[in-house]
Amino acid sequence: MNETSPAPVASAPAPRKTPATGGGKPAGTAGAPAATGRRIAELLQRQGVLVVLLTVVVVASFIYPSFHTLDNARGVTVQASFLAVVALGMTMVIITGGIDLSVGSVFALGGVLAAWASQWGFLPALLVPLVVCGAIGLLNGFLVARAGMAPFIVTLATLLGARGLLLAITDEGATTYLVPKDSAFAELGQGSIWGFGYPILVALVLFGAGGLLLQRTSFGQTIFAVGGSSDAATLMGLPVARTKMLVYTLSGLLAGLAGALNAARLSSGVTILGVGMELDAISAVVIGGTLLIGGAGSISGTLWGVLLLQVIQNLINQIGTLNSSYQSVVSGGFLIVVVVAQRYLARSRRTT
User: Fold this and answer.
1) Using one digit for the tens of pLDDT, what is the confidence trace for 56-77?
2) CA atoms of 268 and 180, how far apart (whole Å)
3) Which of 241, 263, 273, 311 makes a 20 to 30 Å CA pair with 328?
4) What is the pTM of this model?
5) Cβ-count burial 121-148 (b if 16+ within 10 Å, e if not)
6) Burial (CB count within 10 angstroms: exposed 0-12, middle 13-18, buried 19+), residue 266
7) Range of lowest pLDDT (6-15, 58-67, 116-125, 185-194)
C-alpha cells in the first residue's frame, strides 16, 4: 500500500528582517576597513623601505650639497651593484625559508678566480668563477634539499671551505693576481655608458630578470609556495627539492659573478674582501621586506634595501667625523626596527 506524505499546511509568510549593518551602513561594507588595513600592511611591508630611502635622500641633499651630485650618485650605485647582485640570490634563498652564509667567501673566491683566469682572456675570467662558485651553491642545495641538513650549518661549512680554498690558491694571501690592463675583462668592470658603469647595468638587468622570474613563471610561484609551507608544496606535487637546489645554485652563481665584476673593477683579486658581506646581504633583503621565515618577499624591495645601506655608508663618509664602523650600528638599528615592524604588520594582517 502506497503511503503519501501529508500535504503541507499553508502558513502566513514570516516578516522579512533587515540584516544588521551596524550604524546604518549597507550590508557588505563591514569588511571594507579590514581589507583596506590588510592592503596597507602589505604595502608597508613591501615598499616601506622605498619611503625611508627617499626621505633619507631628500634630507641628506639639503644638509650636504655634495650628496645629490651626479658623481656621488655614480659612486653610490657602483658600490651598491656588487652587493645587489649577491642580495638578489639571497632573496630567493630566504623566500624559500633558507639562508646562505657562504656568499661572502664565495664572492671573494670568485674575484680571485676571475683575476687568475683573466690572463687567458675574457671568457675564462667569467666562466671559471661561475663554474666553481655555482658548484659550491649546488653543493649547498644538495645538502639542504636532499640530505635534509640545516641551511645554517651547511652554508657555514661552505663559508669556511670557500675561504680556505681562497687562501690555498693565493698562498695564504701572499699572492695577488692582477687583471691585465686594457683587457676586455677589465673594461667590463671599469667601462661605462652615459657615465654609469657596466656593473650597474648588469645589476639592473639581473634584477629585472629576477623580478620576472619570481612573478611571471611557475618556478617563481614554486619558490613562494616552498617558503610558505614545504609540506604543503610537497602535497601539491611541486618539486620542492629541485627548487631548493636551484635557488642555492643561483645564489652561488650570483655571488661568484659579483666577485668577478669587482675584480674587473679593481684590476685584481683581493683576498680580504667579502668578510661580513653575507650579513650585509641578509640585512638588505630583510630591510627590503622579505620575511626571514620565508614565503613572502620582493626583488624590488631588496634593491631599495641595498641602496639604503649604501646611502647610509655614503652619509657617514660625508659627515667625515665618523668611521665606517658606525655603518654597522645604523644598519643593525634599521634591521631591528624592520623585523619588529614586520612582526607587527603580520599580526595586524592576521587580525584584520
Assistant:
1) 888 888 888 777 788 888 888 8
2) 9
3) 263
4) 0.82
5) ebebbbebbbebbbebbbbbbbbbbeee
6) middle
7) 6-15
